[in-house]
Amino acid sequence: MNPDAPAESITAASVVAIRPEVSSVDVEGEVVLYDDDARVLHRLNPSASVVWACLDGFASLAEIGADVADIYQADPVRVLADVVAAARQFGAAGLLVGVRRDGDPIDDEAGTAGDAAGAGAAGEAGGAGAAGDAGEAGDEAADGPFIAEPPNT
C-alpha cells in the first residue's frame, strides 16, 4: 500500500499488514483489538476474526480469500468480496499499515490525495460474512466486521 492510501484503494491484489500499535487478544472466543494510538477497542465478529488472523503482510487478499473459501467450503467470489470489505473497514479504522484512517488529513507530500488506483476492482461488499453460514453472514453485514468501542474511563 502507498503511505496514507485511502481504505477504498484496497483491492483483492492488496497485501496488507496490521499496524504494530494494534494489539489483539482472544477473550472467551471473541477477538478484541486495542488501537493504542486512537485509544479504541474493537470487538471482531467471527468472520472478521478469521480475516484479521490472516493479515500477515505477505499474502494478498485474493490468496487469503481463496484459502478461507477452501477451508470453509464457501463461495470463493462471496468470500473474496467479504475479505476485501473487511480489510477496507480495518483500514478505514486506522488498523492497517499505510492506510489512512477515515477522517485523518491527507498527506499532500506523499502524493496520495485521490490515489485510489484499482479501487473498487473487487466491488463493494456488504459485510464480512466469509467464514460464517448464510444466517451469520446476514447478521454481520448489518454491523460490519467489528464494533468500535471507546475504552471505559
Task: Walk me through the structure.
The longest helix has 17 residues, at 76-92. A hairpin with a 4-residue loop joins strand 2 (30-35) and strand 3 (40-44). With 153 residues, the protein is an alpha+beta fold. It has helices at 46-54, 61-72, 76-92, 134-143; strands spanning 22-27, 30-35, 40-44, 146-149. The chain is built from four helices and four strands.
Topology:
Blueprint: E1 22-27, E2 30-35, E3 40-44, H1 46-54, H2 61-72, H3 76-92, H4 134-143, E4 146-149
Antiparallel strand pairs: 1-2, 2-3, 3-4
Helix pairs in contact: 2-3
Strand adjacency order, main sheet: 1-2-3-4
**What characterizes the major β-sheet?**
4 strands, antiparallel
Mean pLDDT: 77
Assign the structural class, choosing from mainly alpha, mainly beta, alpha/beta, alpha+beta, or little secondary structure. Answer: alpha+beta
What is the radius of gyration? 15 Å
**Helix-strand pattern:** EEEHHHHE
Number of strands: 4
What is the distance, rounded to the nearest whole angstrom, between the alpha carbons of the first and last residues? Answer: 34 Å
Assembly annotation? single chain
Helix segment count?
Answer: 4
Strand content: 5-15%
Could you name the ranges where pLDDT drops below 50 across 5 or more consecutive residues?
109-142
Indicate the percent of residues in helices: 25-40%
Shape: globular
